[in-house]
Write a structure and sequence with these properties.
Shape: globular
Structural class: alpha+beta
Strand order of the largest sheet: 1-2
Helix content: 10-25%
Amino acid sequence: MQCSKTPGELALLLEETTLITGNLVRSRSAGSLTLLPDEKLLNRAEAIASVRSLGEGRSSWRS
């Protein structure tokens, strides 16, 4: 994942259904996700693009 506060942050996809990320992607309540605050990101637009690329081609994920 790119442009987080931690260089080289990883994301793992298990069995095409479970995504485990570092602290770039977080949840404050069940059913919703958010990113780190802007001041913690190197580049918000690139961070969003990096997260979106993780889901490309994954039509089985719930939205």
